[in-house]
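Changelog note: in this version the structure field was regenerated for every chain. One regenerated record is shown below for reference.
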Amino acid sequence: MFTQLDPPLPVLVLDKGQGLAFAVIDYGVEHNLIWVTALDRSGEIWCAPNPKVRMQGNWTMGRSKDAALQPAPEEAVSQ
């Protein structure tokens, strides 16, 4: 099942960087959700498995940034 997210969600894709998830693909109970994400820095579109995706911090919602998670360095994003 393909679900378009409206509005898109700001996420961090580990090892790729920050971006907006604009869709989710669900292949069923035996698979991870796949987050279709447009990366902020490079504009690339990546389909990232659920364990690699984190919500960005949101002060208003009380969700702080995880200090252990940092956006990917710029050179890693461009590869």
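Spot check on this record: The chain is about 5% helix and 45% strand. Residues 1-54 form one domain.
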